[in-house]
Design goal:
Elements (H helix, E strand, L loop, with lengths): L62 E4 L3 E4 L10 E4 L14 E3 L4 E9 L3 E6 L3 E6 L5 E4 H6 L3 E4 L33 E7 L2 E6 L27 E5 L1 E2 L2 E2 L1 E4 L3
Antiparallel strand pairs: 1-5, 1-8, 2-3, 4-5, 5-6, 6-7, 9-15, 10-11, 11-12, 13-14
Length: 252
């Protein structure tokens, strides 16, 4: 579980030696209205030509779309014209200028922030704020943020960029910024996401994570989290001002 990290989303799926990544669930059938101009609120582009494992986007949107190893990007919701064909196994030839929210083609992972849906396409962001469209086909799998976080192998707080690497946010008794805080054991933190409620996620501290010989290594946290004695539970803010505040582990 400590071999590979993302981010993430920071949920930051999710360096590489400590990354975890997850499997994507079934396509949802509901349709989310999409603005006709298919534009995103005006922002200053943050994309500078470099793509990391975990990348900021202009809008976190309604969820994430995972794509197959070979996929097509379109310029409009009707999927007209010649698509941009991307092959993760061609490495950076076809991947040039296609930076997704979660980007790890070495492991076949490209997850796009989804900002809307029609009955035939997902509206997604590349390169921070550029709008593209993915077809709603079985190999293009959508998860709401609730599903994406709750089905992860585990989550933890992102840290400040300074040398102290202080975790961002506090574990609270209730999902609000003025609730009493909860102390967690010393050591490297890891939480299991139990329930997402708006911008907050109910978590349980992973009591096994700091064990030198973790018997649950490589398993999703929901397989074993109920074995913790005296469980520590609370709420973490996972999103604020359209920024993801947690790392999301997607693989063991």
């Amino acid at each position: 579980m400590k071999n590979l990290i993302i981010a993430l989303l920071t949920l930051s799926l999710f360096s590489c030696a400590e990354n975890k990544k997850d499997k994507i669930g079934p396509i949802k059938k509901e349709i989310t209205p999409v603005r006709k101009d298919s534009s995103v609120a005006a922002v200053t582009p943050h994309y500078d030509g470099r793509c990391n494992i975990d990348n900021e986007v202009a809008q976190l949107g309604i969820g994430m779309v995972s794509v197959p190893l070979k996929f097509s990007l379109y310029d409009d919701s009707l999927l007209r014209g010649e698509p941009q064909l991307v092959d993760m196994y061609e490495k950076y030839d076809s991947l040039n200028n296609v930076c997704s929210c979660v980007f790890d083609p070495e492991y076949g992972l490209m997850h796009f922030a989804c900002t809307g849906k029609t009955d035939r396409a997902y509206r997604v962001l590349i390169n921070y704020s550029q709008v593209k469209w993915l077809p709603r086909e079985k190999d293009y799998q959508f998860k709401t943020w609730e599903q994406y976080i709750e089905s992860s192998f585990g989550i933890r707080r992102k840290t400040t960029a300074d040398s102290l690497r202080t975790p961002i946010g506090l574990v609270r008794k209730e999902p609000n910024d003025v609730a009493d805080t909860i102390s967690i054991p010393a050591g490297q933190e890891m939480f299991c996401a139990m329930q997402v409620k708006g911008d907050w996620v109910k978590v349980q501290y992973d009591c096994f994570y700091n064990n030198a010989n973790n018997p649950n290594e490589g398993q999703p946290c929901h397989n074993y989290i109920n074995k913790c004695t005296n469980p520590v539970t609370g709420w973490l803010r996972w999103r604020q001002d359209n920024k993801q505040l947690i790392d999301i582990f997607l693989m063991p």
